[in-house]
Design goal:
Number of strands: 5
Helix content: 25-40%
InterPro entries: DUF2794
Protein name: DUF2794 domain-containing protein
Strand content: 15-25%
Number of helices: 2
Distance between the termini: 63 Å
Strand order of the largest sheet: 1-2-3-4-5
Pfam families: DUF2794 (PF10984)
């Protein structure tokens, strides 16, 4: 058979950043629990060249209440995961996804109790 030739693109361009299956499962599990609690109603995923972003909305027409960003370029500096609030403030940053999601999960536990 023939050989596969990659589609020509700009040289040195970074690859598109995305979520791995386990990461996305963890995020969507949290999203499902927040929907069940009546706090979130919509989400959006943006896969770019610098970051992958999961945004959770209270209503579709608003700004996202939380954004979960994965920036591999910051892996060795501040950690590649960040939880960003509605007004753009970084609420939590770290190398692991679990501790970064902890403030949102604590909020969910307060509602259930």
């Amino acid at each position: 058979m023939g050989t596969i030739t990659p589609f020509p693109g700009p040289r040195g361009a970074p690859l598109q950043i995305g979520f791995e299956r386990l990461e996305l499962n963890r995020i969507l599990d949290l999203y499902g629990r927040m929907v069940a609690a009546g706090l979130w109603r919509d989400y959006a995923i943006d896969l770019g060249y610098e970051a992958a972003v999961f945004a959770a909305f209270r209503r579709a027409a608003e700004r996202p209440e939380f954004r979960i960003e994965k920036r591999p370029a910051l892996r060795n500096k501040q950690g590649m995961w960040a939880l960003i609030g509605e007004h753009g403030m970084v609420l939590k940053r770290g190398p692991e996804l679990g501790p970064v999601l902890a403030p949102v999960e604590r909020r969910l536990m307060k509602i259930v109790d």
